[in-house]
UniProtKB/TrEMBL annotation, chain A:
Keywords: Amino-acid transport, Cell membrane, Membrane, Transmembrane, Transmembrane helix, Transport
CDD domains, sorted: TM_PBP1_LivH_like
GO BP term, example: amino acid transport
InterPro entries: ABC_transp_permease, BCAA_transport_permease
Lineage per the UniProt record: Bacteria, Pseudomonadati, Pseudomonadota, Alphaproteobacteria, Rhodobacterales
Record's subcellular location: Cell membrane
Family: Belongs to the binding-protein-dependent transport system permease family. LivHM subfamily.
UniProt protein name: Amino acid/amide ABC transporter membrane protein 1 (HAAT family)
A Pfam family it matches: BPD_transp_2
Gene Ontology cellular component list: plasma membrane
Membrane topology field: Multi-pass membrane protein
Residue stretches spanning the membrane: 7-31, 51-78, 90-113, 140-158, 179-205, 211-231, 238-258, 264-282
Single annotated GO MF: transmembrane transporter activity
From TrEMBL, chain B:
GO CC annotations on file: plasma membrane
Domain of life: Bacteria
Organism encoding this protein: Rhodovulum kholense
Family annotation (PANTHER family): BRANCHED AMINO ACID TRANSPORT SYSTEM PERMEASE, HIGH-AFFINITY BRANCHED-CHAIN AMINO ACID TRANSPORT SYSTEM PERMEASE
Record's subcellular location: Cell membrane
Lineage of the organism: Bacteria, Pseudomonadati, Pseudomonadota, Alphaproteobacteria, Rhodobacterales
Transmembrane segments: 7-24, 30-49, 80-100, 109-127, 163-182, 254-275, 287-306
Protein name: Amino acid/amide ABC transporter membrane protein 2 (HAAT family)
């Protein structure tokens, strides 16, 4: 029982990170129907910039804020320079553009920063908290709290604010959204900036636990992508559920079956869900136009 | 006499393969050439799947992995001749593609992308975790097929690089010929109809599910043979051959050169294989340049280099 609780805690912590990456995917997908494979690099940048700004003498909260803002600016630039010029291109081309962007960012990070692993001090100490016979790090609570806060914020944003509804309208039909007076260019800027900022936030929160280096992005992007798909692409509820489920699957597999195959089980589960529910857990069935 | 487009493409390919060695200053170039041909072969498979049938796979390196490890394992464990091991790898890949393809090809777009990606990652994971059999992430040696010695007995002395250059070049020609034949066949036309619109293809009586599965299986065989050739010429193989980055590389080569055309896609393989060789001087910038090239080509030449350039040359008179 104690062991089970321990696995659940570690699963939920990792799952919260996947959920944050998946939420980032969701925002961009909602606004533009693009799946941004560079999402993992935003997480990496959030961690790396904070580490180096902190090393340069900035206090941690300021370094983190700077990292999130800088990453958000990069997200906006990515949209302006690479995604927007290729609008209307087939899915394969867009996949290649965002993968190209991810390789470019990784290459630049390796030059600007370095190839070492870096950590940050935990925000509220390293003393484990005992809960129900298992222990959890205070930093894990930060990660889980961060994911929940972002989820609630996004949910309110998409359902309660005019701007959020404008984003959804742009996704549904860009031309129609323009006709009713929505500035779709600004909506895209907002979506990419917000998504990059959330990715960077995930990087800041998780670096004290898992450390960060220039090449952590690919793995995170794949897991976040899988989590978003598991939940149903474009649905914040799905992204949160998909991320947490994926984290739990991994932790339980690692604990009870085999740590080597923990990632395999995650993908097997995703394949199974997609076979049974081709639109993911919370997705809606689409129809195809001739 | 006017040659059809198919034979013109094959002739160009043949002349390039046959004449380029005249300009090679050293044996190293034969190695690079052989590598280009292997990549080209895998990329033709992507042309059939993505260019003809309009389906995405981000896990095709999984099949290259099956082919490569068939070449590495079958001779020692099953006592098969290395050439038969290539055939075995292709058969296993075809069977796996058929089994995996049935459920996942029902998915579309990004969902298909993630399902195929999951498949590729599973293969790579099995290869690096089954240490007892595959040597794990460190890789394992691959036996030599012994064809070079056979040629030596016949009086033809080739260096290793030269032998694999001609061998892979021949395989590439055969692969390109088969793909161009497929394109011109009724099946090829049905595939293009499917690419245009699945619903419309179905209403004119095309068995869409079966056709997609065929395209997926054929392209898996291409990837598998390419993986086997790569393993045999390097005499060593690691699970990276089945990794995510290799899958991406295949798709990028195809789309960069022009995924709708066999020659275009091979040209994409030429560029992406040469790029790292040229950029070794600027090793630090290699990744940045690669990423920038991927983005720029997709923005400015969305159909890929060759089709876009061909259109420019012909002018706008389509």
């Amino acid at each position: 029982m104690d062991a089970l609780m321990q696995f659940v805690f570690s699963g939920v912590t990792v799952g919260a990170v996947y959920a944050l990456v998946a939420l980032g995917f969701t925002i961009i997908y909602n606004a533009s129907d693009v799946v941004n494979f560079a999402q993992g690099e935003f997480v990496m940048l959030g961690g790396m910039i904070t580490v180096f700004a902190h090393l340069a003498g900035l206090p941690l909260p300021l370094a983190a804020l700077g990292a999130i803002l800088a990453t958000a600016a990069l997200g906006v630039a990515l949209n302006r320079l690479a995604i927007e010029p290729a609008r209307g291109a087939p899915v394969v081309s867009v996949i290649i553009i965002t993968i190209g962007a991810s390789i470019l960012i990784r290459g630049a990070a390796q030059l600007i920063f370095d190839k070492q692993l870096h950590g940050l001090p935990a925000f509220s100490g390293d003393d484990p908290i005992r809960v129900m016979g298992a222990t959890i790090l205070p930093q894990s609570l930060w990660v889980i709290g961060g994911a929940l806060a972002v989820f609630v914020g996004l949910w309110a944003f998409f359902t309660r604010t005019l701007t959020g509804k404008a984003v959804l309208a742009t996704s549904n039909n860009r031309t129609a959204a323009q006709l009713v007076g929505i500035n779709t260019g600004w909506v895209m800027t907002l979506a990419f900036g917000l998504s990059a900022a959330i990715g960077a936030l995930a990087g800041v929160l998780v670096t004290p636990i898992t450390l960060v280096s220039y090449d952590v992005g690919v793995g995170l992007a794949l897991k976040g992508f899988a989590a978003a798909m598991l939940g149903g692409m474009g649905n914040p509820k799905g992204a949160l559920a998909g991320g947490l489920l994926l984290g739990l699957f991994e932790a339980l597999t690692a604990g009870y079956v085999s740590s080597q195959y923990k990632e395999a089980v995650a993908f097997v589960v995703i394949l199974g869900v997609l076979f049974a529910m081709p639109q993911g857990l919370f997705g809606r069935a689409g129809t195809e136009r001739v | 006499m006017r040659l059809s487009a198919k034979w013109t493409q094959l002739l160009i390919l043949f002349l390039l393969i046959a004449l380029l060695p005249l300009f090679f200053p050293s044996g190293y170039y034969f190695r690079v050439g052989a590598l280009i041909f292997v990549n080209g072969l895998a990329v033709i498979g992507i042309v059939i799947l993505t260019g003809y049938a309009g389906q995405i796979s981000l896990g095709h390196a999984g099949f290259a992995g099956i082919g490569a490890y068939a070449s590495a394992l079958a001779p020692g464990h099953l006592g098969l001749h290395p050439l038969l091991a290539v055939v075995l790898g292709a058969l296993v890949s075809a069977a796996v593609a058929w089994l995996v393809g049935r459920p996942i090809l029902r998915l579309k777009g990004y969902y298909l992308a993630v399902a195929s990606l999951g498949f590729g990652i599973l293969v790579a994971m099995v290869l690096s975790n089954e240490r007892a059999l595959t040597g794990g992430p460190d890789g394992m040696p691959v036996p030599d097929p012994g064809l070079r010695d056979l040629l030596k007995d016949l009086g033809l002395k080739l260096t290793g690089g030269e032998f694999w250059y001609w061998c892979c070049g021949l395989c590439l020609l055969i692969g390109a010929w088969a793909a161009l034949n497929l394109q011109a066949s009724p099946t090829g036309r049905a595939l293009r109809a499917l690419h245009g619109s699945e619903v419309a293809a179905r209403t004119v009586g095309i068995d869409v599910a079966r056709l997609k599965l065929q395209a997926f299986t054929i392209s898996a065989v291409y990837a598998s043979v390419a993986g086997s050739l790569l393993a045999m010429q390097n005499r060593f193989i690691t699970p990276d051959v089945a990794g995510f980055m290799h899958s991406i590389e295949m798709v990028t080569m195809a789309v960069l050169g022009g995924v709708g055309s066999v020659i275009g896609a091979i040209f994409g393989a030429v560029i992406l294989t040469l790029l790292p060789q040229v950029l070794t001087v600027f090793a630090d910038y290699e990744q940045m340049v690669l990423g920038a090239v991927m983005i720029l080509v997709m923005i400015f030449l969305p159909e890929g280099l060759i089709p876009s350039l061909a259109r420019k040359l012909r002018g706008r008179g389509e």
